[in-house]
Every structure is written in structure tokens, then in C-alpha cells.
From TrEMBL:
Name of the protein described by the UniProt record: MFS transporter
One Gene Ontology MF term: carboxylic acid transmembrane transporter activity
Subcellular location: Cell membrane
GO CC annotation, single: plasma membrane
SUPFAM superfamilies the record matches: MFS general substrate transporter
Organism: Mycolicibacterium arabiense
């Protein structure tokens, strides 16, 4: 490795430019949280206006997840080949524009399509912003970069939740989506003059980016037509599944078709590490299945089970969001000392202590609900701030953004499954019990996958490569 990058990696503090690069990524991810949580806040209003059942309404939450894998792959590929900064700007336009269109929607299908546009932008923002922030900081600080960056998401959630009781009762739910253009303008202004990510630029100078990027691997002349066809099949397949156009055995059949499409794409992108890519996807899928039933259905639980009004819902979401943000920042600091995997698992196990008490409280114990949700989100959601670092530790720089974007956002289909699963289980058990069961079960599973680094172990089978060797380029 060249002398300059090594010196940068060994520096004891961050420069002013590195902080600017971080904040430019942070504000974009704040917009990500702000725009995406809007649909969960206004779910009951949408259900009333469009005459939808709760299960039908939750498919609108799922709509953005349906398109995320495509956005993560394509915009991640752009970030790998042409630079992280440009992909970040394209992503901002996608999900800010999509959110604005949501405010103009006239029915179920228009909202579904516009949420899918939001999903493309979200995925691109995640893939490009995470890699941009981490590659701009020295390696010794990258757990902190990962955790601190993801703290932007719950701050965006808090801002949206605080605007909800101020905007919706007087102006209606559509204005919540229009307001999202303001933080988008701020993000674009901050990014206009910033330099490219340091590590990516150094890799370009060494010639490490010229070959074997996602664009070269997936969309070269020999594979382009076949992979475009596979992508279209996967996209149509997921729309049919998550719009609940079909039910019963057809869902299983179409899910297998989608899984086959993703496997074919992953095999080409992984370049000999297919098993590792598949297990990274399964790790992210499980992470979403433990976190998103609560994240997507908490406002509905508060309004329907506890009979909270909009102001009370906003207050609860404030404390939950602050716990998420504080946990993200703290997890990065702790992980730089204890290690990524050890810190991740420790946080997950502690979070289990909060789950049952949270959903055992009645509406009379509001303050205790604030306290316990703060703790649950601190250790459960907050610890997931380490997930980008965990994934990127397994990926080389030439496919880091596209690999992160693809693995994370295919796995993020768990976020599309989670609200539908939660609403379906709630039909027989009640929403509070359903959220408890799903959160506990999948938290234990993700702790096993991360704690034993199943993805890394599978990737090293038969390769003779140690974990340190695999991460040497990170």
C-alpha cells in the first residue's frame, strides 16, 4: 500500500475536510430516515382515505423495499466505477423526488410506485454515503464512522415524528411528504464542493478500480442482456408478491423465482465468494426481521392498541429515536475498542431485557414507556449502526459500494416482509404480542449469525484465506 494512505490511516485525529465529508453523508442519511418513516406515521390516514385494510396499507411500507435491491446494485455500481460523490447526489434526487410524488398520489397503486422510487434512492444513499464516509476516515475510526453515520436515520425519524402532530391535523398527510424537499436541498448544497472519498481515489490511482467493478462484472456485453432480463423478472416478481396480487402457493413459487434471480446476480458479483454474499444477505434479512416489525408498526400500535393521539405518538417516537441515535454513536465508539462483532452481539443480547416490559405497559405508564423504548432502541436499533462496517469488512474496494448496496438491500426485503408478517401475526395474537415474539426470535438469530461471523466462515471455506487477509484491503 502506498505511503500516503498508510499515513492517513495512522493519523490520530480527523481533519476539517474529513468532518465535512462525514456531515455531507450524515445529512443525506437523515433525509433517508425522514422520508422513509413518513409512510408509517400516516399509515392510518392513508388506510382511511384509500379505503385499505391494515394489511393492505402495510404493503405501502413494503413498496420501497421492493425496489431497494435494484437501487443498491445500480447506484452502488455507479459509485464503484465513477465515484461515491456522484452516486450520493443521484440518490438524493431519487428519494426526495419520490417522496414529493407521494404527496401527489391519488390511490393505492400510485403511492406504491412512488414509494418504490423512494426505495431506489434510499438504497443508493445507503451504499454510497456509507462507503463515502468510511473511506474518507482513517481505518482506526471506521466503526465510529459507521455508527455515527447511522445515527442520522433516527434523527430524521424524530424530526418527522415531531412535525406529524403539527402538520397532519391542520394541513393533512400530503404536506408531510412535501416538506422533505427542504433537507434534500441542504444535502445537495453541502455536497457541491466536497472532494471524492480518499480511499476510492487512491484505488483509482493504483488501477484497482479499472477492472472487476460491478458494471464490468454484470453489464459487460456478454452478460448485459441476460442480467437486464433477470433484473426485470425479479422486479415484477416482487411487485406481484408484496402488493398481495397473489396469495397462497403462488407467493412461495414467486419467492423462489426471485431468490433464483438474486442468486444468479450475486454469483457474478461475488467473483468466487458466492457463499459469503448469500450469508451476508441472510444476515441483513434477519436484522430487518428483528427490527422492522417494531419500527414500521410502532406508530400503529400506539394509535390502535394504546389509543394515543398524534401528540402522544410523537413524544414516544422522540424518545425511541433518541435512543436509536445515541446507541448508534455509542456502538461505534465501543466497537473501536472491543471489536465490531463482539460489540454487536453484546448490544443485541442486552436489548432482549427490554422487549417484554415495553409491550406489557398500558397507556397509563407513559413515562416508563419512554424510558424502556429509549433503552430498547439504544441496544437493539442503535447497535445496528455497526452493520455497514460488518458488511464492508468482507468486501474489497472495487465492489464495496455495489456489494454493500446489493447484499444490504436484498436482505432489506426483510423490511418488506416484516410489517406484513407483523400485521398477519397480530390478527390472531394482537399487535403487542406479535411484535414481542418477532423481535425476540429474530434478535437471537441475528446474534448467532454475527457472533459466529457465519458469512466470513462460509467465505473462507476451501479458500485458505484468513479473516485478516480478507480484510487487508479495507
Amino acid at each position: 500500500m502506498a505511503t500516503a494512505p498508510r499515513a492517513a490511516d495512522e493519523q490520530g485525529s480527523l481533519t476539517r475536510t474529513q468532518w465535512k465529508q462525514f456531515w455531507a453523508a450524515w445529512i443525506g442519511y437523515l433525509l433517508d430516515g425522514f422520508d422513509f418513516i413518513l409512510i408509517t406515521l400516516v399509515l392510518t390516514e392513508l388506510a382511511d382515505e384509500f379505503d385499505l385494510s391494515l394489511v393492505q396499507a402495510t404493503t405501502l411500507v413494503s413498496a420501497a423495499f421492493v425496489s431497494r435491491w435494484f437501487g443498491g446494485l445500480i447506484l452502488g455500481a455507479v459509485a464503484d466505477r465513477f465515484g461515491r460523490k456522484g452516486a450520493m447526489i443521484i440518490s438524493i434526487f431519487c428519494f426526495a423526488g419520490g417522496s414529493f410524488l407521494c404527496g401527489l398520489s391519488w390511490g393505492y397503486w400510485s403511492m406504491f410506485v412512488f414509494r418504490a422510487i423512494v426505495g431506489i434512492g434510499m438504497a443508493g444513499e445507503y451504499a454510497s454515503s456509507v462507503t463515502y464516509a468510511m473511506e474518507s476516515w482513517p481505518k482506526r475510526f471506521r466503526n465510529r464512522a459507521s455508527g455515527a453515520l447511522l445515527s442520522a436515520y433516527p434523527i430524521g425519524v424524530v424530526l418527522a415524528s415531531q412535525l406529524y402532530p403539527l402538520v397532519v391535523p391542520s394541513l393533512g398527510w400530503r404536506w408531510m411528504f412535501f416538506i422533505g424537499l427542504f433537507p434534500a436541498a441542504v444535502a445537495l448544497w453541502m455536497r457541491r464542493v466536497l472532494p471524492e472519498a480518499t480511499e476510492w481515489e487512491e484505488s483509482v490511482k493504483r488501477g484497482a478500480i479499472a477492472e472487476n467493478t460491478a458494471i464490468a462484472l454484470l453489464f459487460n456485453p456478454a452478460r448485459r442482456l441476460a442480467n437486464i432480463t433477470i433484473s426485470i423478472v425479479a422486479a415484477v416478481d416482487l411487485v406481484v408478491i408484496f402488493s398481495r396480487t397473489v396469495t397462497g402457493p403462488w407467493v412461495v413459487a414467486l419467492a423462489l423465482v426471485a431468490a433464483g434471480c438474486f442468486f444468479v446476480l450475486a454469483r457474478q458479483l461475488a467473483d468466487g465468494k458466492t457463499g459469503m454474499f448469500v450469508m451476508l444477505i441472510m444476515t441483513v434479512l434477519t436484522a430487518f426481521l428483528y427490527s422492522w416489525p417494531l419500527q414500521s408498526l410502532l406508530p400503529t400500535y400506539l394509535k390502535t392498541e394504546l389509543q394515543f393521539d398524534p401528540a402522544q405518538v410523537a413524544q414516544v417516537l422522540l424518545w425511541a429515536g433518541l435512543g436509536y441515535a445515541a446507541g448508534s454513536v455509542t456502538s461505534g465508539i465501543v466497537a473501536d475498542r472491543l471489536g465490531t462483532n463482539r460489540t454487536y452481539v453484546l448490544g443485541l443480547l442486552i436489548s432482549l431485557l427490554f422487549v417484554v416490559p415495553v409491550f406489557s405497559l398500558s397507556s397509563d405508564h407513559v413515562v416508563w414507556l419512554w424510558v424502556l423504548l429509549f433503552g430498547l432502541q439504544f441496544f437493539s436499533q442503535g447497535i445496528s449502526g455497526l452493520l455497514p462496517k460488518f458488511i464492508s469488512d468482507h468486501l474489497p474496494v472495487n465492489v464495496r459500494a455495489s456489494g454493500l448496496g446489493f447484499c444490504y438491500n436484498v436482505g432489506a426485503l426483510g423490511g418488506a416482509i416484516a410489517p406484513i408478517m407483523g400485521a398477519s401475526v397480530a390478527a390472531s395474537l394482537g399487535l403487542g404480542t406479535a411484535l414481542t415474539v418477532l423481535t425476540v426470535g429474530f434478535t437471537v438469530l441475528i446474534a448467532i449469525l454475527v457472533g459466529f461471523d457465519v458469512a466470513g466462515r462460509v467465505g473462507r471455506i476451501g479458500s485458505g484465506v484468513t479473516k485478516d487477509d480478507a480484510g487487508a484491503s479495507l
